[in-house]
Amino acid sequence: MKISVIGCGYLGAVHAATLASMGHTVVGIDVDPARVAQLAGGRAPFFEPGLDELLRDGRATGRLRFSTAFADAAGAQMHFLCVGTPQSKTSDGADLSYLVSASKSLLPHLSRGDAVVGKSTVPVGTVDKLGRILAARPDVLLGWNPEFLRQGTAVKDTLVPDRLVYGVRGGKEGAFARRSDGTQGAARGVTAVLDAVYEPLLRAGIPRLVCNFATAELIKSASNAFLATKVSFINAMSELCDAAGADVTELSEAMGMDPRIGNRYLHAGLGFGGGCLPKDIRSFRAQAQALEVRSVEDWMGVVDSINLGQRARTAEVAKELCGGSIAGRTVTVLGAAFKPDTDDIRDSPALDVALRLASAGAHVTVTDPKAINNSWMRFPQLRFEASAARALEGAELVLLLTEWAQYRDLSPAAVGQLVRRRTVLDARNVLDAAAWQAEGWTVRGLGTNHAAALTEQISAG
Ligand SMILES: NC(=O)c1ccc[n+]([C@@H]2O[C@H](COP(=O)([O-])OP(=O)(O)OC[C@H]3O[C@@H](n4cnc5c(N)ncnc54)[C@H](O)[C@@H]3O)[C@@H](O)[C@H]2O)c1
Ligand SMILES: O=c1ccn([C@@H]2O[C@H](COP(=O)(O)OP(=O)(O)O[C@H]3O[C@H](CO)[C@@H](O)[C@H](O)[C@H]3O)[C@@H](O)[C@H]2O)c(=O)[nH]1
């Protein structure tokens, strides 16, 4: 099938490349000429494992191209909207201006029977709003197909998703009810086109759920809200563990063994960041407020404040480890990206903490395997160093803030030779504390103080 993908960022570029790998003929459209030039050259404009290979394959087969011209979307039967929906600059709500603009630009290039299907994460009610823009073309089908991929595993998540969700007008009844006049209704039409797009996935047994627009919108928001809830729950527990002398890693391991709870998203530490969870829970909160559902509004407020509290808490522990003041201290931060295996620094907890320490007077050097280029121009008050070894030289305090494999695997003996003082704050609770302590390191985690206190007691005799 001929498909257009509008917006080629972390979501759209991966979506376009994977659709081409399934055999479709795809054009990716973006307003950013530099991004389009890179993608057209077969190179990903950001670090995402496996994407470069797919882009090169798509280019070689001639099935994948990129353009800044919306006119190039003409002739496609399916148009996926994948533009950003960031947090508004003036409120907690989502900024829908990119979606509105992309829909208006697409409008003149649509043909009778085309399907326009959104994948961006949107507040409930957005599809109806876009429907009013597309009302000028009643012969065009509208649907919503929220995306659940994670950065770092985006290619695999797109090719082997846990489920496909189709939001269609009138929901399941609209999609599958027989019409007395024998015509195919819009809901049925968009379901059939999506089924054709995802045929290889459906054949492989990926479940597909058809629902109405509001349910599709809420499935995505509620899923992210639940993931954020799990992370903030365990982070609140980590604070309780510190206060009570318990160990949160043991607590979460034991809780996670109960299949009703599960161990995923139960890793305590610095908390969540990125271009999705933080802005999506704030948008969810704003939606609940507009719909006057106080329980969800309050809930999201608590999840957000626990999450932001972890950043403040980490900066406070860092100061404590430097004897109460961090001014003038040489500090090395391991990690700038919001999580490992991505170069994305949107709302990065690691950079947030680094900035807090710099503004408290510390000399902060940040290192990251992939995100240095993204970071250094935006944060001139921080020093960036691509080599972890050079970044660690002379450090009086080391903070592990993004748990890249290469930082988890650091040798405490080798790092000990580089630093001035063997003190590490492992804000992701991933280091083998005993191994580091055996090399003379003072190790602090979040919610694992019990272990540190015990070691102090043992070494005190
Ligand atoms: N990043 C993820 O892991 C992920 C996963 C699932 C859902 N989402 C959702 O997908 C959407 C996109 O997220 P992202 O992370 O890819 O954002 P992004 O900022 O990486 O990409 C957005 C792209 O849209 C382009 N764009 C903006 N206005 C445009 C217009 N009028 N026409 C064409 N292109 C335009 C931008 O230039 C940019 O390349 C958001 O709603 C997000 O919440 C993201
Ligand atoms: O136990 C955990 C798990 C995650 N995190 C943090 O949570 C954030 C989000 O991680 P992850 O969900 O892996 O990354 P994203 O790529 O932001 O993906 C989320 O956001 C996407 C955009 O909506 C959705 O599509 C995905 O399903 C959803 O997982 C990161 O900062 C992680 O460090 C923790 O602190 N503890």
Automatic annotation (TrEMBL):
Query: What keywords are annotated for this sequence in UniProt?
Result: NAD, Oxidoreductase
Could you tell me which residue ranges the UDP-glucose/GDP-mannose dehydrogenase C-terminal domain spans? 332-433
List, from the UniProt record, the residues annotated as the active site of this protein.
276 (nucleophile)
- Pfam families xrefs: UDPG_MGDP_dh, UDPG_MGDP_dh_C, UDPG_MGDP_dh_N
Give GO terms: molecular function aspect only: NAD binding; UDP-glucose 6-dehydrogenase activity
- Residues bound to NAD(+) are 30, 35, 85, 121, 279, 346
Q: What is this enzyme's EC?
A: 1.1.1.22
Pathway noted in the entry: Nucleotide-sugar biosynthesis; UDP-alpha-D-glucuronate biosynthesis; UDP-alpha-D-glucuronate from UDP-alpha-D-glucose: step 1/1
Q: Which NCBIfam families match?
A: NDP-sugDHase
Instruction: Give the family, as the similarity comment puts it.
Output: Belongs to the UDP-glucose/GDP-mannose dehydrogenase family.
This chain's protein is named UDP-glucose 6-dehydrogenase
Q: What is the lineage of its organism?
A: Bacteria, Bacillati, Actinomycetota, Actinomycetes, Micrococcales
